[in-house]
Design a protein that fits this description.
Elements (H helix, E strand, L loop, with lengths): L9 E6 H11 L4 E4 L6 H14 L5 E4 L3 H13 L4 E6 H6 L1 H10 L5 E7 L16 H5 L3 E2 L4 H18 L3 E6 H4 L2 E6 L17 H4 L5 H22 L4 E3 L7 E6 L1 H13 L5 E4 L1 E3 L3 H8 L4 E5 L5 H13 L4 E3 L12 H12 L27 H11 L6 E4 L17 E2 L4 H13 L3 E6 H17 L5 E6 L23 H7 L4 E5 L5 H12 L5 E6 L3 H5 L1
Length: about 550
Amino acid sequence: MQELLDKNPGRKILLGNEAICRGALESGVQFVSTYPGTPASEIGNIFFDLTRERNGKGLYFEFSTNEKVAMEAGMGASFSGLKTLIAMKNFGLNVCIDSLLPFVYAGTKGPTVIIVADDPSCHSSAQSEENTRPIAFLAHIPILEPSDPQECKDFVKLGFKISEQFKIPIIIRTTTRVAHQKMPVVLDKMERSNEKIVGRFVKNPRQFITLPPRVLEMKKELLEKIVKIKSFSEKSSLNKIEKSSGPYKIGIITSGISYLYTKEALAEFNVSFPVLKLGFFYPLPELKIKKFIKGLKKVLIVEELEPFLEQEVERLAKESNCKLEVIGKKMITEIGEMRPEFVFSAVAKLSGEKYSQPKNTLQISIPKRLPQLCPGCPYWSVISAVKKAVNPEEVIFGGEIGCYMLFGNPPVNMQDYLFCMGSSMGIGHGIKKATGQKLIAFIGDSSFFHSGIPALINTVFNKSNPLIIILNNETTAMTGHQPHPVSVGSDTGIKIENIVRACGVKNAKTIDPTTNQEEMIETIKDFLSKDDVSVIIANHPCKFVAKK
């Protein structure tokens, strides 16, 4: 923390996420909102600790109940003139897209940067290898892609400047390898305000009310902004050409972490193909790309996941170099995160060099061990009670994202579907209506507040009867023990059972499964036989939070 707060210029070794925070602080950020999600979690953790240390002076931070709420809180701050940072992982962008699109139409008052962290190879994500980049084409929102922690800091600062100049929110898209790599980062001067931040919302229906026919005028104004930002992108140092020393007919276009692997590969084979490194994914500097590819016979596109950049280069080549061979996913896979050996292999083929992937010479047989819940986790008591109360072969088990997703691994084997947050109840309701089979849906406390309440109301309204077990360990455990409305020490006065009953659930009970195992078993048996929806709140704090 102290490294991030150092006022003196110099160098400090920072993670990519730490560098994002430093860039925001150097920019004078005033309002930060987020919902925790790896690989972006450290951003919220840092600002949470920072605002507690500063007692709220000069900076407001919140862990919002979900990403849509975080986006809307940030929108309100931006419309009130505050310099705003909003952070989330890629799936969080899905949750808030309803708000994001009209936000881009309306534009900003206070400059706004949105951090979105993708997770190629699904290191911390179960749902899919979602790629954030195409959201740019849907929303017409500029996207910047840093490749290392220094660029994370610099791009955040530039993002605020672009947002301020063009009155538009900016997305900075990172990935796991960018967010979690470390390097020495040059720190610039940082001014810390000790004054309480006070914005002002000035009424302006033409900006803040997105109704037709005005909304069509807003879209026209947005597209005009994008034309101006494209001109800015053409001149920006974020898009740079590294020229070769010889008259090569082969070039490389890349961005993000793929740029670092490209530099490694060129050094490995001692070749100097010209490289166009793109910091702007959208809007692309089309004139610069056309100029770069004009004299080439082949161009290699090195990008993670789907070939969006490759498709754009193919389109531009029809106008400037129709004979150009664009090489991308036929050499580099679009499944999984980019790995150095993928780029090494592609560069070797283009340069006529031999390359074989290094083999693991250590012949060690390591027993396979899948992730498990922590020793002492209160969820073990829930598992035990469920297995004693029912025959697992006769009950469908619904899961979702959180520590309890590990119920799907042996030896528990108590999960029959897993998708996104809040879906255990939503899908469970559909299965109950379609089949009438017995079903238990598991959902965590943070997930319940995130997106479970609407699914619960729908289940009640449409008269379904699953048994829902809300696993309340009083923290957002899997992403780093961030607080939520009923966390340990929370003074909100909110109680999950009160909310459940207010949603119309008649059969609701709060039980500590670690001390009342027999009551838990009997309640599961009783509630599973009810004709309407039933809810058990399994209440016991995570052992790590309880220690604190």
